[in-house]
Records
---
Amino acid sequence: MNSSTAYNNRIWEIDFIRGIAIILMIVFHLIVDLKDFYAYNIDYLAGFWYLEGKLSAIIFILISGVSSTLGSGSLSHGSKVFAWGMFLTVVTYLYNPGNYILFGILHFLGISLLSASFMRRLPSSCLAMISCAAIALGILFSERFVSSPYLFPIGLISSTFISLDYYPIFPWYGVFLFGIIVGKIVCADKKRLSLRQASYIQSESYASLLLIRSIKLTAWLGQHSLAIYLIHQPILLALLYTLHLF
């Protein structure tokens, strides 16, 4: 890849890591669909698949924090992401009023990105303390219920709370802030690595070309992560429905 490619104005490594998170998320949601819609004997609330799903979310939130240090569009992007989160709230409520998305990962990321333009100005030491405090609060909040039904955005829920997707501000904001710290350190010069210059893919062999194309595809998924997040579930359900017809 040279400087004239589509990645010229982006750090492809960030897109690549985000793409890995997207792939992990799609696999996890495939497992969820097989269990919930087709009664496959798979436990995604514990064990390997639970950890796989959480790993996807952690990577995605971390890399969102990293990328928020690279530009000045966090306010507009955060507003858009939150708006899409509200759209999913409406759609899932219309589909099933008894179990819909109240405060999912898009709601969380939208609010986090809205705060990023201010938070990234703070010194890393201060961000680290806030990050640890946010995670500690999240752990504390998860161990108790409250009577108010309106504190769920910060991680305080009632005993009757239910949400199809749930990523409260605490503890997850701590992960996002840690991503900002990483971004301030690693991406300070906003430089990117050229795929062609990478020492591990110097040759023009079939294997190296296949590796480059795989990396580009994964980075492309990361570059279009929001759109893929919004459409992947209907596509998965349609594919599974079609396959189970035969």
---
Amino acid sequence: MAAVLCAASASALPPHASRAASASALAPAAPAAQTGEVPRFTVVTHRPGTSPGLLFATPQSARDSGAVHGPQILDDRGRVVWFRPVPAGQFATDLRVQRYRGKPVLTWWQGTSSNTGIGKGVGYIADSSYRVIATVRPDGDYAPDLHEFALTEKGTALVTSYRTVPYDLTPVGGPKDGQAVDSVVEEIDVATGRRIMRWSSLQHVPITESDMPVELTHGAPYDYFHVNSVAVDDDGDLLVSGRTTSTVYKVDRETGAVLWRLGGRHSSFRLGAGVRFNWQHDAMPEGRGTYRIFDNGSVAGSPGWESRVVRVRVDARRRTAAFLGQVTHPVLQSVENEGGSQRTPGGGTLVSWGSSSRISEFAKSGRLLFDATLPAGWSSYRVYRSRWSAEPAAPPAVSVGPDGALHASWNGATGVARWRVLGGDAPAALKPVAEAAWQGLDTAVRLDPLPRFVKVEALDAHGTSMGSSTAVPTDS
């Protein structure tokens, strides 16, 4: 599977290779306990003061073609609460809690990707029992891309997609009969699938704004813009990030006109010291003219290349952009691809350092509160933190491993604190024989001797039963 590069770096760019996944391939997958190894974060730093809630991530491997990919929820100790493996050759991005029809839902994108970081797939919306209640699927040549799946208060979804078209590239030194990649933003009514609006970069942004030298594409379609985030600003218009133009655009939601440019070759604003960013991701509005941007820094290998999260305040009347502050990692210097951030309730910042395999949370003061890493070669494009209360429709499960240990699991249940094990000589004659603290997606319990039949009961923090498995024989 191709890694999610989230825009081509300044190196050889292979041609597109992805195809939209079929509906059958995107059917609900089996619980994680029935699949291969679940990717795990290793918590390096965990200090008091982190924001409440769970972490929502989408680990993927750029190196291991046999790796198990999928969205996952984890706690501050790195213990996996929920994992949904996706079919081989696919991966997931943008797992987060959003609201749909007045209720909290879990959303993510799932599909395939080319080596140039362009995805084709489906956006999923699931309820608090993890039942998929809605999807946003491909519309002809426009398939939802991996970079954005944002729900709005109107019951619509903002998605990105890419389309290769014949294009005259002579203004940037390319061939007249070349090809360009059109970055597309769509707003889709989730309930009906009806398209509300479609914005095309090629219709509104000339290819001469790009920071990507056309010769570095080596004949591949020219991805001059590479949209990688879309958000609704507080005035209702859209904020669109173009990675390879190093520009954040304010776009009229009705007409598609570019209202202003922040950064890049033709910035509408005079940039204050510390504002300029390059090859950015995840440009998000915070309200009242303040914006938060994951600044990847520049093309890999540039002198002084440092990635950061930068906050900028725009004064539309005076046409100025002022530096408000930044977050950098004390050890990590550069992140070539991916990346994102989230403002925490206390004024701190949660950061996914993209392709660096690291996620961090910082206090408002800048102090590092939480730091976790994935194995080398793994990354999570974005990471979010949210409160989430869920109880799966399926009951808990118990099995006996090859080593004779019992394994208790309830994939996605957020309130389990302990497991009670019941055992006996017959399914109708079971009594409590042990208890064990919940240890994540799979909790191993050893009993000696092992009863002929066992079942497990999930207990909350008050010792109240939340649900139980069926009784299973231990000698099967």
---
Amino acid sequence: MTLAGIELRYLVNEIGKRIEGYYVSNIYGISRNSILFKLHHPEKPDILLMFSTFGFWITTRKIEQIEENRLVKRLRNDLLRSKISEIKQIGTERIAYITFSGLNQEFILVGEFFGDGNIVLCNKEMKILSLLHSIDVRHRKLNIGLNYELPPLGGLNIFEITLKDLSDIQSVTTAAVRWIGRTLGLPTKYAEEIMKLANTSPQSPGNSLSGNDIEKIFAATKSITEKVVNGVHEPLLVRDEKISDVLPFPVGNIENKNSTRVTSFMEGLDLLFTENLLEAGKTSQSNSVTQQIEEFEHRLEEQTKAISKVNQRTGLISAIAKSLLEFASKGIATFDDPKILQMFKEQNTSLEKERGILFVVVNGEKIKINPESSMPAIASTLFNESKKQLKAIETIESEKRKTEKILEGFRKQADVAKNSVVFTIQKKREWYERYRWFLTSDGFLSIGGRDASSNSSVIRKHLEKDDKVFHAEIVGSPFFILKNSSNNSVSSVMETAHATVCFSRAWREGMYGLNAYWVNPDQIKTAAPSGQFIAKGSFVVEGTRNFVKVAALQLSVGLYQKGDSYSMMCGPPEPIKKNCIYYVTIEASGFEMVEAAKKIKLEFLKFKEKEEIIKAISIDDFIRVLPAGDSHIVESGVGMKSN
């Protein structure tokens, strides 16, 4: 898929609105033709902006580096910490300028999204500082130190077109749909949709159109353009055997194509363009290994042929030797006997003499014999040669086994290379995901602190009158809140108490049989009594405490789906099994957090239905939900939310 000019205008407007006030916090090289900008805002979620030779878009997928990008070092030097002050399109062309401002400097990044594409970094005077591809053609030159030049601009500006402009179509014999596409810079899908809306045959020659036809084409052109640019979309991801495309709304005949609704045109582009980048990356990573595989496959084929050929030859030599013994037993003692000559002919064997030496030639192999020897002695010579050839087969088979082993290694290497091209989903987190959290069996939200700072935040920012507050009887316990729990759900209380103990120091120390307690919000005092001090993340608890005994140190990690979004949830086993698609249950002791997280992810990857989703979740997200301390897996399975 290539972007149309009107689609680029929508992206320029949409991205410009969404990144207002953001600055560049990091820049990553993804491939030789693609760069990822991480944009940060002090109050809003980070945004990932992909900038490639075939377009730019906001992405939720962070692809691991596939290839070196030679622009990245220069871009980091010049653009880090700068703000994006402007994004604009050049006319209707597939060219975008992004202006970066900061430290009294201004830089312009040019994206050319046509042909092979290009990315060019310029200063504010449009002098080229760095670029992907140098160009030296008749109409322009692009190189470091030169001023950036636009390519020759052609056609009409679709955003400023008038009815009079369109009337030029009446002077051509070209099919109307072709003239519309070429003159307005539109791909076939939009040109055909314009003709369809205008109720005019697309193949009608331009000079056959009436004034009324042109008015209808003009109205349809304006309608299509405004819908695309203004975001009046019903976006679809369309696939067929030859090509995939993202449509802002249905155009043309899509009934016979595999189409899927997507949440937005941007999301559709993100899905498709990310697939393209990953596929290109897999090809790039495996190309060098593929060459080695082809070489060793050819070697293996030749060795197999050699074994077959030698086997055939040894069989033939043995057969001839046996025939000679039979002839000898019948009193035939010379090679010039007609029966022996006939046998040689039938076995595709001949006698040859070179410099007075006699050879039996079997399948091109010359075997020296002594014509003065007896027939049994000559047969014995042939049998010995057959055994010698069989030993050669053993040598070839040994080499073949080595080749097979090397080939297997290269094939595994190719698989590893392909699987190393992965991405992680950069999703917008719910507010509670900054804390420990899970949903109870009764559907109530339970949140807890990760450290002193988040303990304080949980109580000060999120405690409400209908909540319950939990704490374990151990120093180093988080505060947990069971939200909206005024109905006194016993199971939710037990589960939150269980989580409070498991996420405390008890997990790391392996301390079983601890109690947790819960109190009401009005029993929590955020200020210390006069003359006393309480540490950050600690609070004074007054009045009666309601104790709950927690016998086991056991948690489950689950894959939780909310709408189109997936996240990892960790809590007591029962609510995780009830609320999640898959789960892995862990107990205290075993592997340190990073190693445990890797093993848990591998366990989830055994569930093939959501394999790609799980692959896209980073190890950091698994580590983030685990309790502090060592863990080991005791069980895994399918949860109640599985399809």
---
Amino acid sequence: MPEQRQLPNQDAWGELYPFRPNYFELSDSFSSGCRCHYLDEYSEKCPAAETRCLLFVHGNPTWSFHWRQLIVSLRGQYRCVAPDHLGCGKSDLQPRPLSLADHIDNLLSLVEWLDLRRVTLVAQDWGGAIGLGCALRASDRFERVALLNTGAFPPWFIPWRIRVCRWPLVGKLAVQGANAFSRAALKMTTTRKERLDPREEQAYLAPYSDWSHRAAVYQFVRDIPLSPRHRTWQTLEQIEAGLPELGRLPIQLIWGMQDWCFTPECLERFMQHWPQAEVHRLADVGHWAVEDAPELVESLLADWLRRSEEALT
């Protein structure tokens, strides 16, 4: 087994993340040799090769820890795969600043390497665009989509709290130097401030403990396109153009309606493309729905998986 990255304070929060590490070595031209960490959890009574797969794709500034409760709950019925994007979690650092298109390439490489089939995408934040971009390029491998507070289209607004983090020098020093983006996320992504205990906060911050390990957090912020001149604007346009193609699949949208970043207007935009989607509006929940209302999200997802599976068989 390859040496795994040891994160700070793991003795304090490690029991919250009771998973075996796995690594996939990328082989493309720019990141050859870089290792992507991922979780691959399933019951021995339900062999992975014969089990439908849930592919959990995280956003910024989180990592696969974000999905821990859903994985523990669902790994008895499904194969649960949750990668850390390059530069995030326990994965290697980025060899250069990566774009949305690069992250899609990396996720697709992992999906193909593991030969994942009958995949249900479960994604949040940046994970939505990354996961949907992957699904559009490997549509024969995906059979369902479940999204939580995300976007997959060029943004028509950028919250000031995000814009500040993009300011030259000031933004870089705040995000990559002071870890302000990650620390702010702990307070601004839930409506119930008591939802995250100190161990959970330590776990969310653990991968981003120094300047070099915060580079990916800053790059995700920089990759938010403000105009069509930005390289990621076109990538998002292409993903949005492909959304109707995915409309043939069972789709669930779970939305924290108090999200100031991916606002209810983002949900409405998805619904324009997917009017048949099953929608759950969580009135008093913020951006991190899995932290704000973990039991409710788990129940909604598990029930939808069961019902939609009956329709697929």
